[in-house]
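no rush on this but wanted to send it before i forget. theres a chain ive been looking at and ive put its sequence and its fold in token form underneath. i want to understand how the tokens follow from the sequence so walk me through it. thanks a lot i owe you, the record is right below:
>
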Amino acid sequence: MARALRALRSAAGPERGLERGPRVRFGPSPTGFLHLGGLRTALYNYIFAKKHQGTFILRVEDTDQNRVVPGAAEGIEDMLDWAGIPPDESPRRGGSFGPYQQSHRLDFYRSASDVLLERGAAYRCFCTPQRLELLKKEALRSQQTPRYDNRCRHLTPTEVAEKLSQGLDWVVRFRLEKGVEPFQDLVYGWNKHEVADVEGDPVILKGDGFPTYHLANVVDDHYMGISHVLRGTEWLTSTSKHLLLYKAFGWDPPQFGHLPLLLNKDGGKLSKRQGDIFLERFARDGYLPEALLDIITNCGSGFAEKQMGRSLEELISQFEIGRITTHSALLDLEKLPEFNRIHLTHHIENEGLRQKLIREVQLLVEHVYGDQQVNQEVLEKEYVERVLLLRKGHISFLKNLVSSDYSYLWVRPSVSREQLQTISAEADEIGKLVLGLMTRQDAVLTVEELNKDLKSLQKQTKETKYSSMMKLLRLALSGQQHGPSVAEMMVTLGPQEVCGRIHKALSS
């Protein structure tokens, strides 16, 4: 045990305050996909770190090996990258305080456990699973909360040695002491929980050599130099237990801040079983990461202002941890498409981001319409860019542009002269007027100017009302009765394509 104590001391954690800025961590268990609740916890840690020029760490907490899903750890880091909040240190990126996966840090926990055993702050427990199950059943039968009765706490060194010589299985339990000191939570204020009054001594090291959450997090937070622990409010009642562990080790604890719950708009718990709160689903459905970051902060607290459309940089500048309230955040996912519309508009307006959108639209058109395309002109960068700029603010997703409502953008409609004549007997005359407008050298193709020109053309007809003329032109250009304004259609398609479609319709 002396060797374990020396090993633990030689691996001393970094002195707090020497590093520039806070060090925070996000510690998910790799049991599945990253969901909105996890994203929110990661985001608040990321924002806090960046606000104060600190470090954001991803630590994979995979001590419960029975629940680990292969590939989940990699998927979580992928989703943090997709969301635009990549960790500074992680299993993939590395860092000076690794390994960043708890299953690779077992020596740390064993050494820490040995230190607590030597100091008398922990003890070996030889109780069998059968005995523990009987204790649980008896407590439930008596309508009491199940708890360990601390039986092995009272074993003498001789009794422990005898049981070890018999090769009995054992775990390590931490001695909970009464009289815990209060701590000041960054969100909930002064707190303390007399855990020894309501719990039995907790297991900190299991028989397979893996630690439980309590030991692993205290040890890792110390040796990784974590200065602030921002985690879900479900861990608030466990914090006194963790502070007892810090005291037993003789370590200074970090500051704790517990984030209120993220709930459905009706106050119910977000359901991971439904599969509709996982980030992969949102990414697949065409949501922008900025929209998700915006909505999960907009429904909560911690920011100087609350408005839709905030960028990550604005979230960082507006964030103050003292502004986080204890009220649960109610998430209304029905509003998410509107958040996405706003952020998609921002992307279209940004020239650099717009180039990425152009390529995405090109791929969508090829995928959806394939052989239906008349020619490659509809895939040209200038054309797609014109479509994006004109539909800016009208679409919530890029995939809207390849829906049936916008098929006319990519495939020429089949419209006959007879169809046009059912709208107006002056179909031929209207067509000639529009062709003349499109071929005029001084024609200015802007929506505003074209609206004026089209109103002037209508006055040159004998009997056709303006609304009927618009209906006729919309049908000729798109094969549809509804959609964007005719002027916008004409600007999007361009003079050559407009003339070609009108010629085709009047000659068929």
Observations:
- The longest helix spans residues 351-369.
- The chain has 21 helices and eleven strands.
